[in-house]
Amino acid sequence: MTATKRQHYRVTGDDLNGIHVSMLLGRDPNPVHLIDISAAGAAIAFLNADRGEVESLLRTGPTTPLVRIESTRLAETLDIACRVAHLQEVDAGVVCGVAFLRRVDETTNLDRALLKVFNRRGAVRVEPDVQQPIAVSVTSPSGASIAEGTMRDLSLTGIGVTVQPEAMSKLPTGAEVVARFSLNEHPLALRATVRFGTLRTAQIPVDGQPATTGIVGIEFDPDARAEPNCRKTLSNWVMRRQLEIQRIQREAAAAAASR
Fold first, then answer.
1. Which of the residues 32, 96, 100, 232 has an alpha carbon 20 to 30 A from that of 89?
2. pLDDT of 134-167, one tens digit each?
3. pTM value surpassing 0.90
4. Could you tell me the residue range of the domain that residue 218 belongs to?
């Protein structure tokens, strides 16, 4: 793996419930919520905090903070030196983007350590509530309609879209597109690139016949997703949905234990 390649990991609710992530800004760890992680860096959130509180915390801490990951899958605690790249206040707290500090020859070891905790499978993607489908329009950069579909999953870096099978021929790998959708009544239109497409047949028959759908993976343009309002909207939705999934899982586990 080269120093410039950003390898993401798939973080599910089970992963998040099974690990503890904190930022060390002195002796005491500060619990944080994990939004996104790779061998290059992470997006973490200080829940129920405001920007001033986090900035004050960073000023009083050491020059080089650490992101700490604890998990039963690791033989020992993983402490990763980092630098803060950006801060942004969102509805649930403050999102902190950090870049990990490591020499090139340390990258592979860090990558292997993260793989022990998370499953590598695209970016950190969160599925929407099936009772509240989110419509997605895929257009050309000039605005011409290419396909209409629904969100399959979303991350800070891209979106998975379910479309009609006949639309797949219009969405080849490498195609430059614009993904248009709304999150919490905030409309977004992000320049993007199609990274993969596949046809899948549903395991559960519909009207007695298996249903075939097209699935397209779309990566957002880095500059487009880094725009402050866009980044805030994406972070708000992903973080809220992650917390909701974790709450549902905890409630289900508690209900099962009480039977």
1. 100
2. 999 999 999 999 999 999 999 888 999 999 999 9
3. no
4. 135-237
